[in-house]
Amino acid sequence: MAVTSEARDCVSTMGDADCLVSVPIAQSGQSIGLLSLCSQAGLEIFGIEAAKAFCARVDCSDTDGCWPWTGPTRRSGYGSCCVRSRDGQVESQAHRVAWALAFGPIPAGKAIRHVVCGNAPCCRPTHLTPGTQKENCEDTVRMGRSTFGSKNTNAKFTDLEILAIRADRAAGAKTVDIARARKVSNSLISMICRGKLWRHLLPPDFREPTPCRSRGWHLSRRVA
């Protein structure tokens, strides 16, 4: 399906502008908002047909806020899609495809960060920017989307229980006794008390407690 000359001009000149100009598609009475933000480089990757199909699954009704992906999502909350590109069928996160459509190829090794909204399904190009994986993880923590602590479905303790464990250790209880009472391993309790786990609950003035004395040889001792 060919693109009209009006649409072609819009696609080649919009760049990174953030607006909802409707791009007319030849032989179609429909218009797709996100398609108006596609760059020539993005359309060269996916083609107009794939771009149109993708954009049809992005809700662009909010002129000021997020444009969420309405298709399948992953457990992480990110949109999941399979689109045809010049390299064949590609499975990707929806927001990565949205950024590539708007700005072209994603820089090698870069994540696409939700720096404006922190909303995982959002595909609005101006809410997204490339960054390192470290920066992406920091965004997740800063915006409260991390699965640290009790948000993790595999967590054995609640936030209150972690604070109670650390309070017991600070009061002089041995990690082995705390572990036995809570029916978990001594190593887990030790890492919690030393601040190696559940770091987001550590007070600003936290100091690692003195290790409990061992009855046996310390692992760091050299044996003659």
Question: What does the model show?
Answer:
There is one protein chain. The chain is an alpha+beta fold and 224 residues long. The strands form three sheets. A two-stranded antiparallel sheet has the order 1-2. A two-stranded antiparallel sheet has the order 3-4. It folds into two domains: 5-142, no CATH class; 149-201, no CATH class. It has helices at residues 5-14, 40-55, 94-103, 133-142, 159-170, 175-182, 186-193; strands spanning 23-24, 31-32, 80-85, 88-93, 111-114, 128-131. Helix 2 (40-55) crosses helix 3 (94-103) and helix 6 (175-182) crosses helix 7. It contains seven helices and six strands; from the N terminus they run H-E-E-H-E-E-H-E-E-H-H-H-H. Strand 3 and strand 4 (88-93) form a beta hairpin.
Short characterization:
By secondary structure, the protein is of the alpha+beta class. It has helices at residues 5-14, 40-55, 94-103, 133-142, 159-170, 175-182, 186-193; strands spanning 23-24, 31-32, 80-85, 88-93, 111-114, 128-131.
